[in-house]
Amino acid sequence: MTGGPTLRRVLVGIGILVGVWLVVPTLVVVPISFSGEDSFAFPPSSWGLEHYATFFTESSWLTSLLVSLQIALIVTVVATLLGTAAALALDRTSFRGRGALDGLFMAPLIIPGIVVAVALYAAFLGWGLIGTPLGFVVAHTVLALPFVVVNVAAALQNVDPVLGRAAAGLGASGWATFRQVTLPIIRPGVLAGALFAFVTSFDEVVVSLFVQSPQLQTLPVRMFTSVTNEVDPTIAAASTVVLVVSTALLGLVALTRRKSTP
Amino acid sequence: MTDRAGATIRAEALTKRFPGASAPAVDAVDLHVAAGEFMTLLGPSGSGKTTTLNMIAGFEEVTSGRILLDDDDIARLPAHRRNLGMVFQSYALFPHMTAAQNVAFPLRQRKVGKAETARRVAEALELVHLGGHGDRLPSQLSGGQQQRVALARAVVFSPRALLLDEPLGALDKKLRESLQLEISRLHSELGITFVFVTHDQEEALALSDRIAVFRDGRIEQVGTPTELYETPASRFVATFLGDSNVFTGTVHGGLLDTGSAQLHCDGPDGPGCLVVRPERLRIGAAPADGANRLSATVSDVVYQGAFRRILVRFDDGSTGLVRDAGDAATTTRGDRVEVSWPAAAGVLVPETAAERVGAGVGSGSGVGVGAGVGVGA
Ligand SMILES: Nc1ncnc2c1ncn2[C@@H]1O[C@H](COP(=O)(O)OP(=O)(O)O)[C@@H](O)[C@H]1O
Ligand SMILES: [Mg+2]
Question: Could you tell me which residues come within 8 angstroms of residue B134 by beta carbon, excluding any fewer than 6 positions away?
Fold first, then answer.
C-alpha cells in the first residue's frame, strides 16, 4: 500500500468510524426488541420477549410475515429462472443493440425506486393487479431480475465456450450440455442471484406500498403502517427478524463466493 | 483394444464463407482420408485448418459442399449426433468433473450401464497411462495429463474417427514429444482414422501417413511426408516443409537461367523455381558429371552437433543454406567455396506457386510428383 504508517492508521480509524456509523443505528433496534417495556426507550430498563410473542401471535404481524415469505419464495423462483435464461441468451449472442439490451436489464437498478413504483402503480391499476399476490410477485421480480442477471452473467464468464463444443462432440445435446456442464459451473452465481432475489423481495418497501391493499400487506408494509399509525414496539422485533433473515442470506452469498474462488 | 475399422472421411468441394469476410475461409476443399489413416492438415495460421476440422466435427456450418463419413453425408447433422472424437488445444475438460467423470461423459450421453461405464473408463484411462488418476480434478493435473484425459474421453465411446486440433500446441517441447509418441501409439492401437491439425511441420512429418498442406483456405498439396519433402509441388510447400534453397529463372532445354547462372534441371520450358534441399548441397566436393556448381562466400557456420548449417552468399548476391554432415569441417566464415549438387537433387516447381495446385497436383507443372499424391486412393 501507499502512504506511511501514520496515514494508514488514520485511514483504518476512519474506516472503523464509518462502519460503526453504518451499523449502530441498526443495532439499537435489537436491544429495544428485547425490551420488557411497552415503549421505544433506549437503553431499555428491563428485558423480555413480549415483543416477539406479540409479533409471532398477533395475526396482523404473523400474516404479513407469511405473506412476505411466500412472495419472496415465488419471486426467487421466477426471477432466478427468467434471469438465468436472460443471462444465458445474452451470453451466447452478439448482435447490434446488444449493449442497449444489457442496459435495459440493469434499468431497475438505476431508475429511482419511487419512479418504478409510480410506473408499476399506473400499469397495475389498469390490469387490476393492485392488492394481489400476483402484483407483488410481478413488481418484486422486476426489481430482483437485475441481481440474478448480473450474478449469472458474471458466472458465465468462467465458462470456456469450447466446453460447449467439447460436450456436443462427445454426444451431448444442447439441453444435456446445459444440465451437465454449464449449470454446475455457474451454480454459485445462480445461487447468489437467487439469494439476492429473495432478499430484494423480502425487504422491499417503496414499490410494495403502492401495490399493497389493507387486505394484503407484506411485512415491511405492515411495519410502515405501524410506525405511521401507532406506537407499537413490536416493530422492533419485526425489524430484528428482517435484519436476521437478510443478513443470514447475504452472508450465505459471501460464503458461496468464497467457496467458488479458492 | 478392438479391431474395429476406422471410417473414411471425404470432403467434397467443402466451402466456408464467414459473414462479412471478403475471401472464403475454406475454399472448395477436396480431401479424402482413408479408413484408419493418420491425416494431418498442415498450414500457417489462418489457412483454414481449424475451420475445415470444425465443419467435419459439426461445430461450424457448411456454406457448401459435402462431408461423407463412409457413405453418409453428415454435413447437416448436428455435432452431437456425428459420433466423432474431438481433442482441442485447450484440453476442454469439464472443470467440475474428475478425470474419470470426464471420461465417462460420452458414455453417460449414450446411456451406457454403470458397470460397463466403469470398465470402459478404467480401460481408457489405462490406455493413456493415467490408471491411478481417475479421481483427480482437471485442476489437479498437469497440462500433459489433462490432454491425456481428453484423449481418453475422446476415444472411450469407440468413435470411428478422431479429430485433433493442435492438441500439443499448449505444451512445452519435451512434453510435446512424449505426447506425440503417445498419439502415434494410440493411432496404431485403435486403428481408427485420425485427422490432426497442426502448424508445426516437424510434428506433421513425424506423425502422419499423409499430409494435406493448407494455404489461404485451399489445399496446396496432399502426400506422404516423403513425397512432400522430396517432391514438393510448389515453392510454398517446399519452403513450408523443411528448409529449401530456391533458384528462380526461366527454363530452356533443361537449363534454368537465373540471370547469373545456368542450372541443370528436369522440367518443361518456361518460368520456374528450382528447389534444392540443404542436405543435397555439397561444399567443395568433386562435382559429378552434370552437376550444378556455384561459387559463394561463407557468411556463417552454425555447429549443431550431428551437422553444421552453413550459410552462404552466392556471387549474384542471393543467399543459400547448406547442411553439412562433416565434409566441410574446416570451412569457416569468409571462405570462398564451390557449392555443388547433382541435377537430380533439384525439383522444378512452377514459379507462381499459389495457383491451382489442389487436387491434380503436378499436372501441367511437369514436376515428378504424380504418383500417389492426388486425391482418391
Ligand atoms: N468465427 C469466425 N468468424 C469470422 N472469421 C473466422 C472465424 N473463424 C475463423 N475465421 C477466419 O477464417 C480463416 C481461417 O481460420 P482458421 O480455420 O482458424 O485457420 P487455422 O486453423 O488454419 O489457423 C482466418 O482468416 C480466420 O480469420
Ligand atoms: Mg487453428
Answer: B98, B99, B100, B103, B121, B122, B125
Residues less than 5 Å from ion ligand 2, measured at CB: B 50
Residue B367 confidence (pLDDT) above 70: no
Average pLDDT of each block of 10 consecutive residues along chain A (262 residues)?
Answer: 78 91 84 87 87 92 95 97 92 75 81 91 94 95 94 91 95 95 94 95 93 92 89 90 90 78 50
Torsion of CA B93, B94, B98, B102, to 10 degrees: -70
Cα angle at B172 between B167 and B174, to 5 degrees?
A: 105
Q: Residues B230-280: pLDDT tens digits?
A: 999 999 999 999 889 999 889 998 889 988 888 988 888 888 899 999 999
Ligand 1 centroid distance, CA of B59 (Å): 13
Q: Are B216 and B354 a contacting pair, CB within 8 Å?
A: yes
Question: Measured between alpha carbons, how far is B172 from B13 in angstroms, rounded to an integer?
Answer: 36
ipTM over 0.85: no
Do B151 and B183 touch, CB atoms closer than 8 A? Answer: yes
pTM value is: 0.82
Instruction: Say if residues B293 and B340 touch (Cβ distance below 8 Å).
Output: yes
Dump pLDDT digits (tens) for B278-314: 999 988 766 666 688 899 999 999 988 888 899 999 9
- Specify the DSSP class assigned to residue A158: T
DSSP A180: I
Q: Quickly count: other Cβ atoms within 10 Å of residue A56's Cβ.
A: 14
**What is the atom index within ligand 1 of the atom nearest the CA of B18?**
4
Domain boundaries, chain A: 71-230+245-260
What does the alpha-carbon distance between residue A229 and residue B37 come to, in Å, rounded to a whole number? Answer: 86
- Helix (H) / strand (E) element for B42: namely strand B38-42
Please, what's the b/e burial string for B298-325 (b: 16 or more CB within 10 A of its CB; e: otherwise)?
A: beebeeeeeebebbbebeeebebbbbbe
Which DSSP category does B136 fall into? Answer: -
Q: How many CB pairs under 8 A join A and B?
A: 67
Question: Is the CB of A163 less than 8 angstroms away from the CB of B80?
Answer: no
How much distance in Å is there from the Cα of B331 to the middle of ligand 2? Answer: 42
Close Cβ partners of A126 (under 8 Å, ≥ 6 residues apart):
none
Q: What contacts 24+ positions apart, CB below 8 Å, involve B44-50?
A: B44/B199, B44/B214, B44/B215, B44/B240, B45/B199, B47/B214, B47/B215, B47/B216, B47/B217, B48/B16, B48/B214, B48/B216, B48/B217, B48/B218, B49/B165, B49/B197, B49/B198, B49/B199, B49/B214, B50/B165, B50/B166, B50/B197
Distance CA A171, CA A187 (A): 23
Q: Which residues line ligand 1 (CB under 6 A)?
A: B 18, 21, 25, 43, 45-51
CATH architecture of A71-230+245-260: Orthogonal Bundle (1.10)
> d(Cα B252, Cα B270) in Å, to the nearest integer?
7
